[in-house]
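Example record

The entry below shows one chain as it appears in the dataset: sequence first, then structure tokens.
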Amino acid sequence: KTKVLPRDRLAGVLREVALASYGGSITLHYDTELTGVRWEVDGEDGKVEETAVVTLEANGGSTDVRCGLLVGADGTARTLATAMEAHTASLDNGIVDRLTGNAGCVRVVRYHDDNRRVYKTVPMTVPAHWRKDVNYSARTQDGRVVLDALPANEDGDYCAALLLRADDEYAKPDSDAAGLRALVDDTLPQFSPLVSDAALAAVAAKPPSNIPRFRYVGPSLHAGATTVLLGDAIHTVKPYFGLGVNA
């Protein structure tokens, strides 16, 4: 079962829990971007020690921060994973083995996307006799239209993702609302009545969102005792599944 948790609500919940539980130990930074990472590696007597140093940019300025523990949870941006890949590739095998516990280098495996899709979110409400705790999906035989619908609450409100090829005329912003209605009526007759004309007109008008190209990280997910990757930073998932939290 999946439920949609909007990003703004998720951010608010995480902030509240973080401050309530660790308010005396952490500092939250807003509108701050991780733009660079380097590792200072020292070794003697067969021991290897490293410190992660991150570059943070905010308000037009940059700051270097030294980290005892650096956790990469930056999702599809993968700034840290890419930096870890370059870092372990630059070291000799002996040092890499000691830093990764013999797991090998950090590598980001990237796949070519030969069927690029984009999506637009569509609000809809299912009938009273439909189950309201499951996902609904549909796909046309030719693959032009794909719909994934996820429950937003227990009242039958759903957030659906309408997936189209990037070059589809209805994937563009300010596309023809009447034409989109005709397409949905024809290809998704079971779902079309659940979407109002006003909602579909708004869908036609808004720009699409991109689906990230599939990548995954391995065989190692960490570099030494200072740096590790979590969640979407390791592997690509559909960005609209959970809209910030993947169940």
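Notes for this example: The first helix runs from residue 7 to 22. Helices lie at 7-22, 79-89, 93-100, 177-187, 197-205.
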